[in-house]
Amino acid sequence: MLKQFKYTFEELNIIPEDFYELLGFEGNEAPEPFPDYIKEALNQAPALCDIIGGFKIFDSVEISTKNLTIGIEGKVFSPTKTVTTQLKTSSKLALFACTAGAKISEHANKISAESDPLMAYVFDVLGSNMVEKATDKVQASLLEEVQKEGLGITDRYSPGYCEWSVGEQQMLFSLLPANFCGIKLSDSSLMHPIKSVSGIIGIGAGLRQKGYQCEWCTDKNCIYGKIKRKK
After folding, report:
1. pTM score, whole prediction
2. Of 2, 133, 158, 187, which sits with the fewest C-beta atoms within 10 Å of its C-beta?
């Protein structure tokens, strides 16, 4: 099963508080000039996005916690123990991709070149928020689909996180239609547009989303892990 969705910026329900953690602020307030910058970014956002996401469900999969591998249609992924352990009871797997589009990053780069790096950073964080919120919606649509069969889903896991090699993006996208969601890979496996995510979600009886257990992961460079550890 293959599904793809388009979202408007308004459907994401992004609010100023969504910026604060990624900007490094605690609580529900931000120092000046950030409130005005965030307000301006939110006002411009509807014209700066092309939000597309989707997933493909695979019924025949092989998951080995012994070998730390995941097999899908002859492709063998080698994520870490964290990923294979969380997916081990899955009877199916979904590969997903989602992007906020190229405009938001292009706008941030333009502003940075015009000597307003702080505003550019706010737009960069907005792009990150957009793609995460959109991927939440893709994941919710996947859950709604599999619940028709009495199944549940795991949290989502992406190459580049949980010490899973980003190079396996190449295999992941080889299992999706060409130019899926308008995303292309560079030779170094980075996604374009930049504000894009991809990954894998487990599907099966009794599965549920637990929320990310950052204490299981040793990736010290992950911004979400840094936020969790600070708390």
Report:
1. 0.90
2. 187
DSSP state of 193: S
Which one-letter amino acid corresponds to residue 20?
Y
Q: Which tokens hold the place of 85? A: 């352990």
Query: What are the pLDDT tens digits along the chain (231 aa)?
Result: 999 999 999 999 999 999 988 888 877 778 888 999 999 999 999 999 999 999 999 999 999 999 999 999 999 999 989 899 999 999 999 999 999 999 999 999 999 998 789 999 999 999 999 999 999 999 999 999 999 999 999 999 999 988 899 999 999 999 999 999 999 999 999 999 999 999 999 999 999 988 765 555 555 555 445 444 444
Burial readout 48-78 (b: 16 or more C-beta within 10 A, e: otherwise): bbebbbbbbbbeebebeeeebebbbeeeebe
**Is the four-CA dihedral 82, 88, 89, 94 of positive or negative sign?**
positive
DSSP 8-state assignment for residue 66: T
Q: β-strands 92-99, 61-64: how paired?
A: unpaired
Q: With the C-alpha atoms ordered 99, 216, 165, 86, is the resulting torsion angle positive or negative? A: negative
CATH topology of domain 2-230: NADH Oxidase (3.40.109)
Q: Quote the tokens at residue 124.
A: 């960069």
Retrieve residue 75's tokens.
């492709």
